[in-house]
Every structure is written in C-alpha cells, then in structure tokens.
Design goal:
Blueprint (H helix, E strand, L loop, with lengths): L2 H12 L7 H23 L4 H13 L2 H10 L10 H13 L7 H12 L10 H22 L15 H8 L12 H14 L3 H9 L2 H9 L5 H37 L1
Helix pairs in contact: 1-3, 2-3, 2-4, 2-7, 3-6, 4-5, 5-6, 7-9, 9-12, 10-12
Length: 262
C-alpha cells in the first residue's frame, strides 16, 4: 500500500480522537516521525518497496494505543491503566487493521510487532527478528527527536535520583516500566533511549544533531545544583560511549571494505 494512502488512512483513524488535544496530537506526530524513520532504516538495508511500506505502516500504528489510553483514562501510565500495546491491538482489530495491510499474514505480523514493541521478543519468528529492531530503534529515535525540542513534560517535582533508576541507567538497562519518582529519574528515562538504539546510522545521526546536548540544555534548568552535576556527568559519559561505538563500527566497516577490495 503506497505511503500517501497510508497517511490518509492514518489521519482518518486519528481524527476519531481529539486531535486538538495536545496529548493526542503529540502521538499523531510521533506516529509519523516513527514511520519515516522506519522507512529510512528499511531503505538503508535495501528492503523491497513492499517491505518498506509495511514497516512504515507499523511505525504509524505502533502507539495508537496511547491515544486510546489517553481518551479512556487521561493517563499514559501502563501500570495504572492497561498496557498501551494491548489497547492498540484491540483498537486496530476492531476495525482499522485491514485499512493498512492487505493480507491476513501482514495484519497478523503487524499486530504482533505492535504488541511487542516495548517488551522483549523471545520467539523464533524470523519476520519479527527482521522488523523489530527497525521499529524499536525508530520509536526510540523519534522520542529523542521530540524530547530534544523541550516539549516532553517532566510530570514530577521531587529532587534527587532513585538508586534503582541510576543503577539501571549506568548498566544501560531498559528503563521502560521502571518506577520514576524524581525529575532526574524522568530525564534519565529520556536519555536511556539513546543506548537502546542498535543501528549505527541512528547513533551517528543523534550525535551529529546533538540530541543529548539539547536534552541537557533544556532540562537541567529544572534541577538543583547537585542533580545538574550528576546529569552533566552522565550525559558526557553517554556521549563518549556512543561516539566510541560509532568509531569502532566505522573502523570495522572500513577494514572489511579494504579486505574485500584487496
């Protein structure tokens, strides 16, 4: 299904929610941003046109459950409401899924990707393993892109940092679903999306666009001096780590290409 048709269908579907609500509009824009990133990554892997359009559509739809969640509960908490992945799958199955995917096989795979886009997938489905890294990286990148604008809300007012959050962050573990109690907890959750990204192309891009710098510049103003010092240290360490990873990847690629040419 071509991109223009997918976008028209996505807008029509989202119009069933209140797009004048900033929280709904934010998820609408996030769907578009994620889809565009999915398409770019699939293109970088030389995927077929139908494959690029498939993952673009999944990117559009992956967070529709957030719209359902906000409309129904006025909350984006998966612990206080129902998981947004489940809400999204249920909403799409009721009516909309066939508007985005032509075959039952595509529909089934798309729903499976959406239902697992924030949780580990341990199955053996090769299509899941093919598309899931693209979807997750695109979701994380789009969130970082939005966060760097300063429009993400902190929601929390307490100073300091939760030991469990800081420990997980330093171990580069997933902070999704980890209880947050402070402003710095929330900022570290924002930043944790950087180390969740697998594709070197996106790592290089987020460093070039200075998203980590931008997030620090925007949100450190809400912190006390002690928390600012901690945040600065964590941002500097994270940037250096990502830069080293990109350099190492590029060096391995260069040597492989030289070996091939020789």
């Amino acid at each position: 299904m071509d991109i223009s048709t997918l976008n028209i269908n996505f807008h029509e579907m989202c119009s069933k929610f209140n797009l004048s609500d900033p929280n709904i509009l934010r998820k609408f824009v996030h769907g578009l941003d994620t889809a565009n990133c999915c398409f770019s990554l699939a293109s970088s892997k030389y995927y077929e046109k139908s494959e690029r359009e498939f993952i673009y559509a999944v990117g559009l739809l992956h967070d529709v459950g957030r719209m359902v969640q906000w409309k129904r509960y006025a909350s984006f908490s998966d612990t206080k409401t129902r998981p947004h992945e489940t809400l999204g799958v249920e909403f799409l199955e009721e009516k909309w899924i066939a508007r985005f995917f032509k075959t039952k096989q595509e529909q089934k795979l798309a729903l499976k990707l959406i239902s697992h886009h924030t949780t580990p997938y341990v199955g053996k489905d090769q299509n899941m393993k093919k598309y899931m890294p693209i979807l997750r990286d695109s979701d994380n990148y789009a969130n970082l892109q939005y966060t760097a604008t300063g429009l993400q809300r902190l929601w929390l007012n307490q100073d300091g940092v939760s030991p469990a959050v800081l420990a997980k962050f330093r171990l580069r573990q997933n902070l999704h679903g980890t209880p947050l109690h402070t402003k710095l907890d929330r900022i570290l959750q924002f930043l944790s999306r950087t180390y969740a990204i697998e594709h070197n192309l996106l790592k290089r891009d987020l460093l070039a666009r200075k998203y980590i710098n931008a997030i620090y510049d925007v949100y450190h103003k809400f912190l006390n001096d002690e928390d600012v010092a901690l945040l600065y240290k964590e941002c500097w360490t994270l940037k250096k780590e990502l830069a080293d990873e990109v350099q190492k990847h590029d060096e391995i690629k260069r040597r492989a290409e030289e070996g091939f040419l020789n």
